[in-house]
Fold these 2 entries.
Entry 1:
Amino acid sequence: MENYTMEGRTYRYYGQEAPLYPFGYGLSYTTFQYRDLVLSPPVLPICANLSVSVVLENTGQRDGEEVVQLYLRWEQSSVPVPRWQLVAFRRVAVPAGWETKLSFQVAAEQRAVWAQDWHLEPGTFTLFAGGQQPGQRTRAPSEVLSTQFTVTGAARPLRGC
């Protein structure tokens, strides 16, 4: 085998075709609402980590668990990258009518791209937070919040951070 590219071989690299059962697919006995997706800082140096917080509210009549998922999308990259990359997730139990604020760290390594070596690139990125993948079509309603952040500085090898 000489072609090791993942393009067309896994759902992460398909064009606009959505997978039949994407990660996070499923139903719940309650409903959840996401709000207040905050990134800190919204502009960060090339080697810095990103702090993320989001509020999850159980708006249903029953206690429930939700798998909160964070995905990253490169808006421009010098090499092929996935449409979005899962960078964090957490299963959270939330009683009916309650809300919880969740905090995550997205490490600089999670923004690295492979081009003969792992390296970091500056640019604009989109971060998604929700109970499913971005753009997922399911029968169960679930929202996905998104916001952008910017990485500044010169491209550099990951080991240089």
Entry 2:
Amino acid sequence: SGIVLVAINPYEHLPIYEQDVIYAYSGQNMGDMDPHIFAVAEEAYKQMARDEKNQSIIVSGESGAGKTVSAKYAMRFFATVGGSASDTNIEAKVLASSPIMEAIGNAKTTRNDNSSRFGKYIQIGFDKRYHIIGANMRTYLLEKSRVVFQAEDERNYHIFYQLCASSSLPEFKDLGLSK
């Protein structure tokens, strides 16, 4: 394991993730500036370029900790320093999930009304100039048990409630849904 960053989700947008902050961390050595997701991303980016080896950033935490948002910030950093932020908008493309996917994988937890119950493995490809050329995201369902049991004050996957609310629509007639 390499560098470990402990971050706290402020549950609001802060100006510490803006474009000018990305440029401030770009090219810096780890420890020269305050701990930040951009410092971790810069270190991985630099090591990838220097050693020509794949790098990994593991974002871990409990529900509502801000894992998805932290991953978005790291991707925004790579897209900006990799020269692809404006022309490809890689962050949006990689994390874009259809509303159906979100409904299937999101549920209400005691800490987050719209918590993703997916694990995500994201691979970002770079060319020889270290510009982003593509990305791939694999998702896997974390809580299959939620289908049949929810803790107190939690809810099943959103899709369950959407299907129940839509059960009277003609296109759902053959699914055997009823009140």
